[in-house]
Specification:
The protein is α+β, with helices and mostly antiparallel strands and 418 residues long. It has 15 helices and 16 strands. Strands 1-5-6-11-10-9-7-8 form an 8-stranded mixed β-sheet. It has a 5-stranded mixed β-sheet with strand order 13-12-14-15-16. The protein binds adenosine-5'-triphosphate (ATP) and magnesium ion. Adenosine-5'-triphosphate binds next to strand 6, strand 10, strand 11 and helix 11.
């Protein structure tokens, strides 16, 4: 039979040992978040398209090329979430979460959707671990947030990653910087791609992000935000470096990081790994002090990051750090004859109710085939219930590893496995 329908390009089916790995990584994420008292937030998988146009920015790749949008029967236009920060900000405002102790700390494991060209580590549906801190302007908050990502990478035993930090300034210096950048770009305008010529009018900093190699070559000589910081923004960046040093978190200053979303101010950072190949970013984030206000909230200092979970798994595999995870089955209960099979199903049910994993046959296999099945499942113990067991009330419980057999009363079977 030929399969006629396949999954959409850039998506993945996750099952078997791969699904167990996802659970392993998600477990680590939740443990790390708890160490910082970061609360989980779950927002919808689709939002009003305006939310992203207004926060991510009109001149960004995400909004111009990558969003999956659709219009419902009521004529409302939505987007499948391309990132997690804007929905978290929306939920924060809509649910008056500013009443929480400050800073309010949120984390999520979300699905993101971007219509990008599929490559290793680049998918159209991918998952991010994201963290957002709302309510602090302090560089110590930037450093603690960065330490969340750092601690997770360390706890996953990932090696060879680099933290790159930069400052792209804020309202106090953006105008002067944009002027310097525009003067530079004007001199090269004819050689920039059409999209960049448009970006120059909307948000010239987005030209620095262009993936077009010709534009990349031009902007490598462009003025950088770090050389145009106001005194306040420069002081914040220096304080961040002192805070990271205090925590013993190594970093490099990388003047070329500007991040692809419009909402960032001051701190921007990335964690990269050479083990990822071309898609080298594991995690990206930064400060966005104007975003909450621009959505109708009080001025609120905020900083966050998004970490690509598929890329984490690629690095874990590349570095041989994947744990061996297998399903745990305590006992297989074989059944012979109708009465034996019934009793096996009932006992299995009761064992599960006591928290003991128990499996029985559901396909009318021969007893020989049932034992093969028990072996494949990796059950620790097996037993068979047939006519004679029902008569004597005694079961032979076999340890699958060493073949040892113990006789156990049927009515003592719960206690035996407890
Ligand atoms: P890139 O430069 O690789 O496109 P980005 O700047 O678009 O990354 P962000 O929007 O900051 O990425 O998202 C944060 C993280 O999410 C990235 O560092 C990466 O690990 C992951 N990520 C981004 N886009 C994808 C994708 N299409 N597939 C898988 N992971 C992704
Ligand atoms: Mg991208």
């Amino acid at each position: 039979m030929a399969i006629t329908i396949t999954k959409p390009k850039g998506t993945q089916d996750i099952f078997g040992p791969q699904a167990a790995l996802w659970q392993y990584v998600e477990g680590k994420i939740r443990n790390v978040a708890a160490l910082f008292a970061i609360e989980e937030i779950r927002t919808p998988i689709f939002e009003n398209v305006e939310l992203f146009v207004r926060s991510v920015g009109e001149a960004t790749d995400i909004v111009q090329k990558e969003m999956y949008t659709f219009t419902d029967a009521g004529g409302r236009t939505y987007a499948l979430t391309p990132e997690g920060t804007a929905p978290t900000v929306r939920a924060y405002l809509e649910n008056s979460l500013h009443n929480l102790p400050m800073p309010a700390k949120f984390y999520y494991v979300c699905h993101n959707f971007r219509a990008e060209r599929q490559q290793k580590g680049r998918y159209r549906q991918f998952r991010q671990f994201g963290v957002e801190y709302f309510g602090s302007y302090s560089a110590a908050a930037d450093a603690e947030l960065i330490s969340v990502a750092h601690l997770l990478l360390t706890q996953l035993d990932i090696e060879n990653f680099v933290l790159r930090i930069n400052s792209i300034g804020d309202k106090t210096c953006r105008e002067a910087y944009n002027e310097a950048l525009l003067t530079f770009l004007d001199g090269h305008k004819d050689n920039l791609c059409g999209l960049c010529q448009e970006r120059m009018g909307k948000n010239p900093m987005r030209v620095l992000d262009c993936k077009n190699p010709a534009c990349g070559a031009i902007v490598s000589g462009a003025p950088v935000p770090l050389d145009h910081l106001s005194a306040e923004a420069a002081a914040h960046f220096e304080e961040l470096q002192r805070c990271l040093t205090l925590l013993g978190i190594p970093f490099v200053v990388d003047k070329t990081i500007v991040r692809g979303l419009d909402y960032y101010t001051r701190t921007v950072f990335e964690f990269t790994s050479a083990d990822l190949g071309a898609q080298s970013a594991i995690c990206g984030g930064g400060r966005y002090d104007n975003l909450i206000e621009s959505h109708g909230g009080q001025p609120t200092g905020a900083v966050g990051f998004g970490m690509g979970i598929e890329r984490l798994l690629i690095i874990l595999e590349e570095q041989g750090k994947l744990p061996q995870i297998s399903q745990e089955v305590t006992v297989f209960l074989g059944g012979m004859g109708e009465a034996g099979a019934k009793k096996a199903r009932l006992l299995a049910h009761q064992l599960r109710q006591s928290g003991i994993s128990a499996i029985c046959d559901l396909t009318d296999r021969s007893i020989k085939a049932q034992m093969k099945y028990a072996d494949k499942l990796g059950a620790k113990y097996s037993l068979v219930i047939g006519e004679s067991e029902l008569e004597t009330g005694v079961l032979a419980v076999k340890c699958m590893e060493n073949g040892q057999v113990v006789q156990v009363q049927i009515d003592k079977i719960m206690e035996h496995f407890a």
